[in-house]
């Protein structure tokens, strides 16, 4: 995955959208009041900024467009806090027209009444232009709240928002609510769920993971984007946050100082990068300090793909294998099941081949569309040339 094009010099609002922005790649917008935490979220999730560094972020003055090139290409737009829908340069049709998801960030440590009013105005404006947007509300900075207070806050925000939308005749608009913080896994988990809604292949991926789990005795399987630590799919058994955290701790992109900055320590922090330089799927083992009596063993497969196994003291095995340069498969299974490693390796290989097919089909489809466009352009040019010749009596 590469993260490029961060911070174009565009005007504040989207009255001058580049062609690339108009492409059909899914777009995800981060909106919310000033200092609610939008830029911090974008930097921590997609640019590996450590949470404490976000203290020094400056306020955003114009839309920052971030092109994410990964298993799917998408864009993240980070908006300035105070948006004015009545500003003549705020072109709601251009801005909301092609959005996949609108993430509205609310600072839960602050008085949130103004934020709720803004959320309401934003949903109403966006829904009018584009009813297919998915609305995602991040009740953010919950690291400062007690467990009870978190639940009360979520209930209050959810209730007020849905009541007000119903009063405005928009009871059918679906909003999803998440409790998030950049200081723990919650922001990655929430982003995983948001991104998954934008992946057209999701049902296929879930199906493949279900088959893999059923045939191999695997308890839980995640398909992770190796750089962002977002999981793009999992089998359909319920996700518990602890399994997700253990699995996501197994990934490290080699530059990642997130864990140390989080105050967590990996006492078995060993890089086992595959030597394939094209691959960014570098796995490292970072087991929780002592508590689980882990016995890491690691191997790299002959073709330099990242591969690692951690046997934990509680009889659970963590199994990681690189799927392609963007994705890694991480599975949780019982130690007894892992005795049949040959079978698991074989099934995982089949899974990888099926994944290749899913993404190969997508590539083929894109190439076909590009060729069609080219052909159409050529034909148009020819037609214009013929008209031109006819007008001036040539040929
Ligand atoms: N405690 C806590 N602080 C956070 C969290 N996320 C962001 N912050 C802090 O909130 C402050 C504002 O963050 P920004 O990311 O600049 O906020 P923004 O929404 O982009 O603000 P504008 O660009 O002005 O709209 C920074 O000091 C961050 O460190 C979080 O999860 N928990
Ligand atoms: Mg900002």
Summarize the structure.
It catalyses: GTP + H2O = GDP + phosphate + H(+). The protein has helices at about 20, 40-45, 90-95, 115-130, 145-165, 185-195, 200-215, 240-250, 260, 335-340, 340-390; strands at about 1-5, 25-30, 65-70, 75-80, 100-105, 135-140, 175-180, 220-225, 230-235, 270, 285, 295-300, 305-310, 315-320, 325-335.
Question: Main sheet?
Answer: 7 strands, mixed
For the record, what CATH class of the largest domain applies? Alpha Beta
Give the domain tally. 2
Q: What's the helix-strand series? A: EHEHEEHEHEHEHHEEHHEEEEEEHH
Sum up the overall morphology in one term: flat
**Annotation field: number of helices:** 11
Specify the CATH homologous superfamily of the largest domain.
P-loop containing nucleotide triphosphate hydrolases
Name the hetero compounds present: guanosine-5'-triphosphate, magnesium ion
The proportion of strand residues reads 15-25%
Strand order of the largest sheet: 1-3-4-2-5-6-7
Number of strands: 15
Terminal CA distance reads 52 Å
The CATH architecture of the largest domain is 3-Layer(aba) Sandwich
Mean pLDDT: 80
Helix-residue proportion: 25-40%
Q: Indicate the low-confidence ranges by residue numbers.
A: 1-22, 253-302
CATH topology of the largest domain: Rossmann fold
Computed Rg: 24 Å
| Structural category | alpha/beta
């Amino acid at each position: 995955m590469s993260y490029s094009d961060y911070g174009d010099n565009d005007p504040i609002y989207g009255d001058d959208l580049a062609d690339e922005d108009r492409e059909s790649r899914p777009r995800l917008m981060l909106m919310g009041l000033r200092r609610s935490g939008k830029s911090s979220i974008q930097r921590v999730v997609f640019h590996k900024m450590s949470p404490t560094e976000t203290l020094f972020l400056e306020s955003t003055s114009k839309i920052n467009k971030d092109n994410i090139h990964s298993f799917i290409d998408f864009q993240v737009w980070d908006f300035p806090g105070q948006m004015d829908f009545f500003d003549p340069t705020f072109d709601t049709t251009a801005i909301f027209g092609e959005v996949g998801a609108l993430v509205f960030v609310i600072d839960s440590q602050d008085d949130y009444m103004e934020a709720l009013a803004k959320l309401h105005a934003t949903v109403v404006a966006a829904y009018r232009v584009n009813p297919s947007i998915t609305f995602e509300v991040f009740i953010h900075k919950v690291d400062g709240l007690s467990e009870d207070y978190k639940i009360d806050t979520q209930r209050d925000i959810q209730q007020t928002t849905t009541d007000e939308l119903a009063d405005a005749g928009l009871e059918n608009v679906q909003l999803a609510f998440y409790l998030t913080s950049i200081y723990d896994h919650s922001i990655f988990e929430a982003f995983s769920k948001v991104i998954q809604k934008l992946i057209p292949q999701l049902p296929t991926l879930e199906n493949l993971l279900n088959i893999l789990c059923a045939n191999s005795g695997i308890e839980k399987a995640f398909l992770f984007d190796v750089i962002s630590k977002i999981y793009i799919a999992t089998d359909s058994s319920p996700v518990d946050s602890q399994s997700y955290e253990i699995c996501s701790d197994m990934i490290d992109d080699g530059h990642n100082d997130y864990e140390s900055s989080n105050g967590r320590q990996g006492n078995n922090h060993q890089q086992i990068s595959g030597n394939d330089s094209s691959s960014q799927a570098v796995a490292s083992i970072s087991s929780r300090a002592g508590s689980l009596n882990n016995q890491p063993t690691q191997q790299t497969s002959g073709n330099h793909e990242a591969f690692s196994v951690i046997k934990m003291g509680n009889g659970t095995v963590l199994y990681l294998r690189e799927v392609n340069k963007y994705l890694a498969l991480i599975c949780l299974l019982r130690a007894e099941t892992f005795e049949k490693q040959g079978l698991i390796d074989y099934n995982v290989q089949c899974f990888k081949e099926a994944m290749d097919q899913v993404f190969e089909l997508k590539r083929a489809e894109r190439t076909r569309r590009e060729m069609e466009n080219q052909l159409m352009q050529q034909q148009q040019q020819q037609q214009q040339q013929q008209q031109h010749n006819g007008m001036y009596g040539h040929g």
